[in-house]
Amino acid sequence: MSSTEFEALASKVEAMKPLIREHRGTAERERTLAAPVVEAMLDAGLLRAWVPKAYGGFELHPVEAVQLWESIAKEDAAAGWIASNQSAVAYLTQVLPESASASIWLESDALIAGGWFPPAPAVRVEGGFRVTGQWAFGSGCRYATWLTGQAIEMENGQPKLNEAGLPNLLIIFFPRADGDIIEDSWDALGMRGTGSNDIRVHDLFVPDAFTWSISPLDPPAPFRGPLYGMRLWFAAVPIAAVALGIASAALRDLMALASQKTPSYTTIGLADRSIVQDQLARVTAKVDAARDYLHSTLNRTMELTSTGSPLTPDRGLHLQLASTHAIVACQEAVDTIQTLAGTTGIRESAPFERHFRDIHTLSQHAFGSGARFESVGKLLLGRESDWGFFYL
How far is residue 83's CA from residue 47's CA, in Å, rounded to a whole number? Predict the structure, then answer.
């Protein structure tokens, strides 16, 4: 399976890799992706992988998208994250009316950043809401043209309840000029180059057209192709792609190290040590199996959505399971590689500590963390899941 669009984008990724490597250190130090890398990804169309074709995007098959994101993340996890996260946010704009999503994506340089926690108080006014609050994890916010956040509707100082008796939660979108970026608030163990700073708004008016009261999806026409049939089950897929890129890079770097290093006070090189040979083979199998499981699950999902069949929880749970499995497997693989690298793994001059920091930061993402195994397990046993996004 390979589309013309994918082949063109893959070629652009290959051509871009020297640029990504050149600016990787700068992104780490400055805690945001370097402008030349962002501009190159925008120019190449890599931030539009999951934007609808009706809006000038590629609407790529998810396996093709995952391959692109893994390839970028293999050079720099932060760059892979910005590329994959932008596609995830683009996918999510299906919650808006067509007029609103079109106004965002018909901008050629559109880039959305934001975070959804904690929910900010929102008060209903004529034509929309007034929102004041602050959100964390605004990946790529320095380069964004639009921002997004989560709010909770308040009435008389108390959360307003919806028909289900639950607080009415909202997802809002607003122009970058209407929000403040809190610089240097992204102080994290890893994934430093993502620039995931906090975003703040004060008494911001958000029109109804740019507000989604969280409820089952009913997407407009541009978002009705098979890709968008994954619904919100898609959310962990981009995270898994980046995890695969990190683990693949760690494997590549370990094999290079093994051919060169003889541990201190010994005479046997890493490549000739049985424990390294054994663990390298096991880790390679673990990462390859996780990738194949994710790809095959995505292919089966697309076969289903292509028929117009709904992705009910009993079907969609496999997307979450494959994604979380890949993330956890990649973390385990990087942990093993970090140990095999020995003291080389603790030096900033070597790549291993960065892989270790990045995977341990990425794996904490709520949508893909190991906690989601329990969320899926509840469904497998016929129980109601604790992860409400499964039902949207």
Answer: 5
Q: Which helix (H) or strand (E) holds 152?
A: strand 146-155
Token code pair at residue 318: 């496999």
Of 199, 162, 161, the closest CA to residue 182 belongs to 199
| pLDDT, position 392 | 83
Residues 271 and 362 in one domain: yes
Q: How far apart are CA 207 and CA 215, in angstroms?
A: 18
Percent of the chain, pLDDT > 90? 93
Say whether 363 sits in a helix, a strand or coil: coil
Closest CA to 391 of 241, 214, 227: 214
DSSP reduced 3-state for 364: coil
pLDDT value, residue 2: 63
Inter-CA distances, 200 with 115, 137, 149, 168, 361, Å: 10, 12, 9, 21, 23
Find the domain containing 341 and state its range: 225-391
Alpha-carbon gap, residue 83 to 241, rounded angstroms: 11
Question: Do 143 and 111 touch, CB atoms closer than 8 A?
Answer: yes
Is 220 within the bounds of a domain? Answer: no
CATH number at residue 306: 1.20.140.10
